[in-house]
Amino acid sequence: MTSYHNDTKIWEAINEEKQRQENVIELIASENIVSQEIMDAQGSILTNKYAVGYPNKRVYTGNEAINKIDNLAMKRAKELFKAEYANVYPHSGTQANQAAYAALLKPGDKILSMSEKAGGHFTHGQPTNFSGQLYDCYFYGVDPKTEFLDFNKINEIAKKVKPKLIVAGASAYSHIIDWTKFKKIADSVGAYLMIDMAHIAGLVAAGLHPNPMEVADIVTSTTHKTLRGPRGGLILAKKKFANKLDNAVFPLSQSGTLEHVVAAKAIAFKEAMQPEFKEYIKKVILNAQAMAKVFNKSKTIRVVSKTTENHEMTLDITKTGLTGNEGAELLYSVGIATNKELLPNEKGSVMEGIRIGTPTITSRNFNEYDSAEVAETIQQVLEEQDINTINKARQKVQKLTKKYKF
Ligand SMILES: *Cc1c(COP(=O)(O)O)cnc(C)c1O
Q1: Looking at the structure, do residues 84 and 157 belong to the same domain, yes or no?
Q2: Residue 53 lies in a domain
Q3: Site: Plays an important role in substrate specificity. Where (predicted)?
Q4: Is 355 in the pocket of ligand 1 (CB under 6 A)?
């Protein structure tokens, strides 16, 4: 703490959070650890500047440096994802989706998207979210047996519903998605295709997942998950949607830009272009696969769809007798952070699974052996649930978090 940090209550809490991040094995699949350079940009004087509008079309004066930052951020986003258009201003993934829908749809129009149970995000039409309240939403799921996307079924539903927009992309789906199959279905019913790559943007940037920009009309994303940038949103699109999207972000749904975050996004895009980033994402996937391999030997814990091809997987823990919430709480008590998750086939909405992912531990340099050890520890804790196992697990967590500082 430096001397100008007067607000001790807040700084103590920030420090407490820092300790927590250091001492926990973080497996929440949507989290990551950003570089110091990204944090420096976010903590910079850019936060003082009001920049409403777009470069050279600002509401306020004094945006000469800001225009440079924004133009660089847009240029890099376009280059990284091979997009004709980029909007780097959405404050979050949710706001990116809000703007994308607004650019393509009128209230009451039909959307077809992945159900929350199958791994879709709640901004894809859940009734508690603006998307479900503003639009007429229909859902597709996964094959009940294989738990993979069932394109025949999706095609069938699309033919019946005739949506104006098909949304692809998920928050809890562990496989490579063949976007061209979505494109075919969208074309056959005359629907727009929007792909939300929030979770896998890092894999796409690294060239280790097909780029949704190759087929989608609009691609939305967050910048803080596997992409390892600041907390924020991003929209990419074909040029023909540029005007509509510009207007859907400002003035329709946002006012001032978060310039400290836009600068940090620009830095993150540059980081993601480096060969080291590709190596990082490769390790993220290998670590996830090392964990899945351990769970596949277990009699009580089942990996949804058996395997993972990306950074995450959902575990069916019903055989342990624990709900997803109980499982996640028990694991957190030994210092392993996960989250409760719906299972594709669950009848109610208890959340019978937990979701785990490897972006954060890989940023801390955990290797495949460490990841397998973490998976073994998870398995032991969830199966045994006794004090001896719990104490041993705590020691293991301490050993690993001491070894891999960040
Ligand atoms: C995380 C996520 C979002 C929302 O991002 P926020 O920045 O939390 O609003 C949207 N879509 C998908 C698929 C996500 O996984």
Answers
A1: yes
A2: yes
A3: 224
A4: no
Note whether 310 and 247 are same-domain residues. no
Ligand 1 center from residue 197 Cα (angstroms): 9
- List of residues 6+ apart from 34 with CB closer than 8 A: 224, 228, 229, 230, 264, 268
Mutate to test the pocket of ligand 1, among 222, 224, 235, 261 (most ligand atoms within 8 A of CB): 222
Boundary-marking domain end, from 272, 293, 310: 272
Q: How far is CA 393 from the centre of its chain?
A: 28
Q: Ligand 1, atom 8: nearest CA belongs to which residue?
A: 93
CB of 311 sitting under 6 A from ligand 1: no
388: CA distance to ligand 1 center in Å? Answer: 38
* Candidate of 94, 124, 204 to mutate for ligand 1, largest count of ligand atoms within 8 Å of Cβ: 94
Q: Is the beta carbon of 220 within 6 A of some atom in ligand 1? A: no
CB-ligand 1 contact for 93 (6 Å cutoff): yes
Spell out the per-residue pLDDT of the chain, length 406, in tens.
567 889 999 999 999 999 999 999 999 999 999 999 999 999 999 999 999 999 989 999 999 999 999 999 999 999 999 999 999 999 999 999 999 999 999 999 999 999 999 999 999 999 999 999 999 999 999 999 999 999 999 999 999 999 999 999 999 999 999 999 999 999 999 999 999 999 999 999 999 999 999 999 999 999 999 999 999 999 999 999 999 999 999 999 999 999 999 999 999 999 999 999 999 999 999 999 999 999 999 999 999 999 999 999 999 999 999 999 999 999 999 999 999 999 998 888 889 999 999 999 999 999 999 999 999 999 999 999 999 999 999 999 999 999 998 7
Q: How far does the centroid of ligand 1 lie from the alpha carbon of residue 187, in Å?
A: 26
> Both 219 and 360 in a single domain?
no
Q: Which of 272, 288, 319 is the last residue of a domain?
A: 272
The overall pTM is greater than 0.90: yes
> CA 206, CA 28: separation in Å to the nearest integer?
21
H/E element holding 163?
none
Q: Same structural domain for residues 325 and 181?
A: no
CA-to-CA distance for 30 and 240, rounded, in angstroms?
31
Where in the sequence is the domain holding 297, given as residue range(s)? 276-403
Neighbour-count burial for 140-165, b at 16+ CB within 10 Å, e otherwise: bbbeeeebebbbeebbebbeebebbb
